[in-house]
């Protein structure tokens, strides 16, 4: 995605998030340049995962990227 200067794997994940209206959870700061942004350890991922754990959410797919 030239618009946000993302490499192939970041663009792939960003496009999937856009298509399916998902929230990106990543430690990769490249997503900060995008319109969707990201959740990370400093802006909510801990709270987000705690929420999922307390509400016994199932079917969560997490892909960790660096």
Task: Annotate the secondary structure layout.
Elements: H1 8-20, H2 45-54
Give a structural overview.
By secondary structure, this protein is mainly alpha-helical. It has one domain. The protein has helices at residues 8-20, 45-54. The longest helix has 13 residues, at 8-20. The protein starts with 7 loop residues before the first helix and ends in a 12-residue tail after the last helix. The model has no long low-confidence stretch (mean pLDDT 78).
Identify the notable features of this structure and list them briefly.
mainly alpha, 66 residues, globular
Overall tally of structural domains: 1
As a whole number of angstroms, the C-alpha radius of gyration is 12 Å
The proportion of residues forming helix, as a percent range, comes to: 25-40%
DSSP, total strands: 0
Q: Secondary-structure element sequence? A: HH
What is the mean predicted local confidence, pLDDT? Answer: 78
Oligomer: single chain
Stretches where pLDDT is under 50 for at least 5 consecutive residues are none
Structure classification:
mainly alpha
Instruction: Let me know the largest β-sheet.
Output: none
Through-space gap between termini: 18 Å
């Amino acid at each position: 995605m030239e618009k946000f200067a993302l490499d192939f794997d970041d663009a792939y994940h960003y496009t999937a998030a856009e298509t399916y209206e998902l929230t990106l959870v990543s430690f990769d700061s490249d997503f900060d340049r995008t319109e969707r942004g990201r959740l990370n350890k400093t802006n909510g991922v801990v709270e987000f995962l705690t929420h999922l754990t307390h509400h016994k959410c199932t079917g969560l797919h997490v892909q960790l990227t660096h």
